[in-house]
């Protein structure tokens, strides 16, 4: 049967579809690079967890009106009994926060540990962040750190929920959860294109096109693409990345919506570092190399490709309830050819470093399913909120290391080294991993309206987590299940000010064994928090102050060797602190995002723990639209942290003194569609190390600048 005339009209594509095709073509217009190879990472310290959430249509300004990141209920930030910071699309655009690393580095209480050029850890409240979410669906870091520079062009907003977050992420560390809210299609046609030129010949182009794809408006779509390429202040390092995201939304009926989307990001770097530069000499004094010093050779490279697909079905019932099911499939492929250097150099000669070449290939696959329902019910003459659901995930990793000939060969001094080292054959030996991780959770939570000013949020999550397989000769078997609680209480002191308290827990199965060979019990983490939140100017400004106490118990720590087998013990750590957060419009034309965090982190003996983490941090982003010249917006950024250090086994103490990094921005609107902006980073040209998470590090970027031309419709 042929379609009737009305049906043919409803299915007819608009010119937007042609524009989307052009945008997709633009994303793939850049010449393809050959495959690169990836190398194994040295063992990392425990990772703290933070929660970041991105969601919905673009929030105007520097705050959001609501978030479901903490308890799966759509609440204002004032009504949420947990610390939540927001990074909006406007902040990312104003300060060119084009990568997740840059975005999180400007977030309250979060530390970005750039341990290498292409791998990163994140921490909050003294512990590693090990949970990312996409539109509220968890994607746990079951295999460690993040490879490659993840792009932010795909997202409308990111919410960061600090502390344990048992309802949204029942497993992990009591640090934070990061929830990325993807851009979604719009019914009205929207389009934007921007081009950026930066220091070290870095070029970037972005495109974003959205609108209805048929005359009836029942099918909408959006295509987002970005391409970036450039050199670096680091010797021999250059990188490019390509991002393409497409999403379709179909109204199957007035109340039922089907959404499907796919993201591909491919990043390639030449001169990638595995590990970094040594930080002290044999006489235990600190090294002081040029800012651009790198341990990479001229043949090292890394290629990382991320693919994320999702299908989401949502239905609104006539009684105000809403149900949603999401199926996601994620794949990450790494191919790298890297060169690690180890040893301690002599101050006089610079000699004492040795070669460790390796090829590392890995394939990580994740399948995730999440189903939930949210609505209201009446009890005792008052209306309350209820949400419940379940999720399941399966993650697998296959990786293989090919170690090169010449391990242990002496190297020349890094001072003045040009990276010339013959590329070896990679057939000395091989090793690798092959294991899987499965997690199943079910949860229920309710927000009870006990009185007009008093609300109780309580819930529980039951989770079973299992792993099996091996990693570099060690068993990865672990199996545990646990029920974690969540409870929060809010009391409205006035129409704008709310006091709150909350308690939430989390756990993490472990595969390490003790001296008897028995598997350690799961790590358990929990957070108790008290605070005050306020909102002003019709929710355009949010402010909060919180005190917290976070514990992580029974974390595996190597305690000794029995023959060739390492054995572990469980250790406890506790962090306490204060967090102040402000985001939104302070006055007409004045936007700000500011956060100050104070942390005290100790082990069970009361000694300072993880001294490589700063105890005080300040984050500030602010812009001002000049009243006398409303086309002009100016702004500034400031990132400050106090001093950090780490004690080495041979008696050396590695230190990074406190520092502040300042930035400036300005944007001029030529007309309603066209604007030009400029950004300067590290204005004072401060020299500092990116991290002391490991015993090696490298220097952060010196002063740099960019200019962006933006067109929007």
Automatic annotation (TrEMBL):
| GO CC annotations on file | cell outer membrane
Name its cellular compartments: Cell outer membrane
Q: Which domain of life is it from?
A: Bacteria
Residue ranges constituting the TonB-dependent receptor-like beta-barrel domain according to the UniProt record: 262-683
Which GO terms fall under molecular function for this chain's record? Answer: siderophore uptake transmembrane transporter activity; signaling receptor activity
Which terms are listed as keywords in the entry? Cell outer membrane, Ion transport, Iron, Iron transport, Membrane, Receptor, Signal, TonB box, Transmembrane, Transmembrane beta strand, Transport
Which Gene Ontology BP terms does the record give?
siderophore transport
What residue range is the signal peptide?
1-29
* Bilayer topology term: Multi-pass membrane protein
Cross-referenced Gene3D superfamilies, in alphabetical order?
A: TonB-dependent receptor, beta-barrel domain (2.40.170.20), TonB-dependent receptor, plug domain (2.170.130.10)
Q: What residue stretches are annotated with the TonB-dependent receptor plug domain?
A: 77-175
Q: Which family does it belong to?
A: Belongs to the TonB-dependent receptor family.
Q: What PANTHER family does its record include?
A: FERRICHROME IRON RECEPTOR-RELATED, HYDROXAMATE SIDEROPHORE RECEPTOR FHUE
NCBIfam families hit by this protein: TonB-siderophor
Q: What is this protein called?
A: Ferric-rhodotorulic acid/ferric-coprogen receptor FhuE
Taxonomic lineage of the native organism:
Bacteria, Pseudomonadati, Pseudomonadota, Betaproteobacteria, Burkholderiales
């Amino acid at each position: 049967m042929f379609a009737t005339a009305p049906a043919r009209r409803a299915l007819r594509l608009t010119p937007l579809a042609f524009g989307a095709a052009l945008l997709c073509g633009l994303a793939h217009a850049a010449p393809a690079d050959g495959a690169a190879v990836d190398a194994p990472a040295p063992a990392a310290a425990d990772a703290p967890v933070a929660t970041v959430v991105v969601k919905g249509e673009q929030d105007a300004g520097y705050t959001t009106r609501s978030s479901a990141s903490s308890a799966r209920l759509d609440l204002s930030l004032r009504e949420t009994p947990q610390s939540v910071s927001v990074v909006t699309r406007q902040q990312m655009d104003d300060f060119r926060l084009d990568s997740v690393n840059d975005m999180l580095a400007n977030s309250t209480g979060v530390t970005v540990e750039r341990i290498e050029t292409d791998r990163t850890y994140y921490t909050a409240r003294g512990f590693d962040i090990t949970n990312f979410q996409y539109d509220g669906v968890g994607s746990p870091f079951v295999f460690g750190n993040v490879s490659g520079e993840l792009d932010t062009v795909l997202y409308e907003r990111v919410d960061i929920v600090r502390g344990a977050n048992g309802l949204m992420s029942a497993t992990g560390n009591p640090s934070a959860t990061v929830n990325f809210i993807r851009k979604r299609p719009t019914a009205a046609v929207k389009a934007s294109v921007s081009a950026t030129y930066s220091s070290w010949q870095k070029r970037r182009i972005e495109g974003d096109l959205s609108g209805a794809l048929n005359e009836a408006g029942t099918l909408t779509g959006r295509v987002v693409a970005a391409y970036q390429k450039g050199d670096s202040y680091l010797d021999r390092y250059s990188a490019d990345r390509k991002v393409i995201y497409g999403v379709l939304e179909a109204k199957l009926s007035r109340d039922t919506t089907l959404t499907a989307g796919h993201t591909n990001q491919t990043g390639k770097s030449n001169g990638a570092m595995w590990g970094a530069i040594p930080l002290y000499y044999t006489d235990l004094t600190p090294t002081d190399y040029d800012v651009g010093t790198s341990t990479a050779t001229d043949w090292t490279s890394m290629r990382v490709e991320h693919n994320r697909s999702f299908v989401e079905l949502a239905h609104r019932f006539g009684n105000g309830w809403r149900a949603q099911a999401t199926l996601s499939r994620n794949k990450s492929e790494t191919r790298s050819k890297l060169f690690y250097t180890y040893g301690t150099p002599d101050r006089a000669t610079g000699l004492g470093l040795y070669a460790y070449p390796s090829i590392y290939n890995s394939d990580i696959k994740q399948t995730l399913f999440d189903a939930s329902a949210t609505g209201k019910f009446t009890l005792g003459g008052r209306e309350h909120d209820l949400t419940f659901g379940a999720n399941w995930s399966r993650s697998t990793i296959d990786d293989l290391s090919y170690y090169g000939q010449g391990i242990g060969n002496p190297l020349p001094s890094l001072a003045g080294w040009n990276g010339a080292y013959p590329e070896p054959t990679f057939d000395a030996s091989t090793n690798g991993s092959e294991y899987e991780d499965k997690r199943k959770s079910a949860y229920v939570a309710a927000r009870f309206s006990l009185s007009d000013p008093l609300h109780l949020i309580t819930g529980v999550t039951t989770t079973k987590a299992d792993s099996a397989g091996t990693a570099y000769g060690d068993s990865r078997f672990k199996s545990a299940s646990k029920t974690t609680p969540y409870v929060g209480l809010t009391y409205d002191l006035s129409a704008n000010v709310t006091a709150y308290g909350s308690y939430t827990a989390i756990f993490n199965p472990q595969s390490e064994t003790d001296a008897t060979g028995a598997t350690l019990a799961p790590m358990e983490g929990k957070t108790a928090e008290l605070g005050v939140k306020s909102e002003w100017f019709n929710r355009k400004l949010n402010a909060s102050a919180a005190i917290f106490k976070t514990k992580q118990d029974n974390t595996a720590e190597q305690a000794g060797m029995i023959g060739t087998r390492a054995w572990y013990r469980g250790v406890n750590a506790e962090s306490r602190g204060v967090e102040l957060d402000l985001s939104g419009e302070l006055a007409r034309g004045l936007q700000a995002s500011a956060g100050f965090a104070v942390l005290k982190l100790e082990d069970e003996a009361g000694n300072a723990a993880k001294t490589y983490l700063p105890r005080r941090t300040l984050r500030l982003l602010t812009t001002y639209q000049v009243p006398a010249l409303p086309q002009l917006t100016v702004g500034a950024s400031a990132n400050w942290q106090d001093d950090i250090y780490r004690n080495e086994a041979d008696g050396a103490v590695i230190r990074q003194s406190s520092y502040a990094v300042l930035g400036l921005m300005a944007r001029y609107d030529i007309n309603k569609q066209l604007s030009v902006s400029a950004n300067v980073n590290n204005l004072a040209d401060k020299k500092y190390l990116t991290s002391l998470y490991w015993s090696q590090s490298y220097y952060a970027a010196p002063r740099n600048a960019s200019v962006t031309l933006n067109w929007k419709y």
